[in-house]
């Protein structure tokens, strides 16, 4: 098959959906095609590790309804080659797609453990991964969660909430280490333990194999752990191979300008894959969070459809851990100067991350509706110190 689209979007995720909808908002007659390699049409990814487990949402609720915008979704197809000179993309089924303007929104792929332990070890990212994990993570099942970052800590909380016996394994000293202040990290370790999770910090998974109806993991402390399933969340890498093969500028993702345009004038990039410059932080970022995916997707769509404006948003991110939750903006790096402003220690408050007196990041812990205020603070020149920051962002009541 050969078809052609005015706008072709490669990757069928959240950035792709947002871009398609914003193009069609500006130009209702625009011919937009999306090629995505997942069987499911574009859907919200964050509920996979939270709301679907709590029963707040079902898989049918997370569909983004992209086709309703008028975009044509070519699902279950992977673009494997890009001929920039011919403005042509080819998929793994032998189909070709001509385009005038192209958006790369290929997202990211989970990092893998260096061994195969069969279908009960799931590197968690997609709706299919959720379905696979759900099959094994029944009430009473023992699930090992590898990783103590965003995905690992969310999944561990959700699996414990679903009645699984959960063991968290990660090499760092505590949950959130390197990101949160020490006291908050220790609080989280205790909080998870109180909720029945075995927190094994400082432990690497070095090997593993499928055994009967389970998985046996070999750990760096010499122990062996037999579990019913393993959920792995050890970070992701951007899906930039296509861009690389096509000769676009790639450096920790596809390098884009302030219009989210790549080194090719007819190709844009958005979401987890895009390496963009943020003016408030005066540095390049690649952000693996929903607000960046949706905001950049939307923005890229607008620019592609002819609205010439810079993307200067500092994306925020959020997470839910049992009944704790937060929103955060900028750099959460505990190596920066950290100012803690707790209304109730480790339960509700604000953590500021400073570099040379400038606020570079803000963690809004169980503190809501302050994202824009945090962004403004990050944009200011300062200098700030602890006394000028404490009480600055109103705590929620
Ligand atoms: C379990 C989970 C929970 C999350 N929770 C949160 C949260 O609480 N808060 C938050 O801020 N963020 C969260 N995120 C992050 C957020 O979901 C991502 O940042 C966002 O989905 C990125 O969107 P994207 O469109 O850039 O990429 P993706 O959503 O990864 O979509 C890219 C799509 O393109 C496809 N694709 C890749 N290459 C090709 C190709 N060559 N041809 C065709 N298709 C291709 C991929 O298979 C995928 O379907 C979570 C992520 C996960 C996995």
Automatic annotation (TrEMBL):
InterPro entries the UniProt entry points to: AIF_C, FAD-oxidoreductase/Apoptosis, FAD/NAD-bd_sf, FAD/NAD-binding_dom, FAD/NAD-linked_Rdtase_dimer_sf
UniProt GO cellular component terms: cytoplasm
GO MF entries: FAD binding; NAD(P)H oxidase H2O2-forming activity; protein dimerization activity
Protein keywords: Apoptosis, FAD, Flavoprotein, NAD, Oxidoreductase, Transit peptide
Domain Mitochondrial apoptosis-inducing factor C-terminal: 300-342
Gene3D superfamilies named in the record: 3.30.390.30, FAD/NAD(P)-binding domain
Keyword Nucleotide-binding: no
Cofactor(s) recorded in Swiss-Prot or TrEMBL: FAD
Listed name of the protein: NADPH-dependent 2,4-dienoyl-CoA reductase, sulfur reductase
Any single Pfam family the record assigns to this protein: Pyr_redox_2
BP terms from Gene Ontology: mitochondrial respiratory chain complex assembly; programmed cell death
Signal peptide extent: none
Catalysed reaction, written as an equation: A + NADH + H(+) = AH2 + NAD(+)
Annotated FAD/NAD(P)-binding domain residues: 6-295
């Amino acid at each position: 098959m050969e078809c052609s689209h005015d706008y072709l979007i490669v990757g069928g995720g959240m950035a792709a959906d947002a871009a398609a909808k914003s193009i069609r908002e500006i130009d209702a007659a625009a011919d937009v095609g999306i090629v995505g390699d997942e069987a499911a049409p574009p859907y919200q990814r964050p509920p996979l590790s939270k709301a679907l487990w709590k029963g707040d949402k079902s898989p049918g609720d997370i569909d983004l309804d992209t086709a309703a915008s008028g975009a044509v979704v070519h699902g279950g197809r992977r673009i494997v080659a890009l001929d920039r000179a011919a403005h042509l993309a080819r998929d793994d089924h032998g189909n070709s797609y001509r385009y005038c303007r192209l958006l790369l929104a290929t997202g990211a792929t989970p990092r893998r453990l260096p061994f195969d332990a069969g279908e009960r070890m799931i590197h968690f990212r997609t709706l299919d991964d959720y379905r696979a994990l759900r099959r094994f993570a029944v009430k009473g099942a023992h699930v090992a969660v590898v990783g103590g970052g965003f995905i690992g800590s969310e999944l561990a909380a959700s699996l414990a909430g679903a009645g699984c016996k959960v063991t968290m394994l990660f090499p760092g000293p505590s949950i959130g280490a390197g990101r949160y202040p020490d006291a908050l990290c220790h609080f989280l370790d205790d909080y998870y333990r109180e909720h029945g999770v075995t927190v094994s910090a400082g432990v690497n998974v070095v090997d593993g194999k499928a055994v009967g109806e389970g998985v046996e993991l070999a750990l760096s402390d010499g122990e062996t752990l037999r579990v019913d399933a393993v959920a792995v969340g050890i970070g992701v890498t951007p899906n930039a191979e296509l861009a690389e093969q096509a000769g676009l500028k790639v450096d920790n993702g596809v390098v884009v300008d302030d219009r989210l345009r790549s080194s090719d004038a007819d190709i844009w990039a958005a979401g987890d894959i895009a390496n963009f410059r943020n003016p408030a932080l005066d540095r390049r970022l690649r952000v693996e969070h929903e607000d960046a995916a949706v905001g950049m997707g939307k923005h890229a769509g607008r620019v592609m459809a002819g609205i010439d404006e810079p993307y200067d948003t500092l994306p925020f991110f959020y997470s839910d851990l049992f009944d704790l939750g937060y929103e955060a903006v900028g750099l959460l790096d505990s190596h920066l100067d950290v100012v803690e402003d707790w209304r109730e220690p480790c339960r509700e408050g604000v953590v500021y991350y400073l570099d040379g007196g400038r606020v570079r990041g803000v963690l809004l812990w169980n503190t809501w509706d302050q994202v824009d205020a945090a962004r403004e603070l990050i944009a200011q020149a300062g200098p700030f110190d602890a006394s000028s920051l404490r009480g600055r962002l109103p705590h929620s009541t």
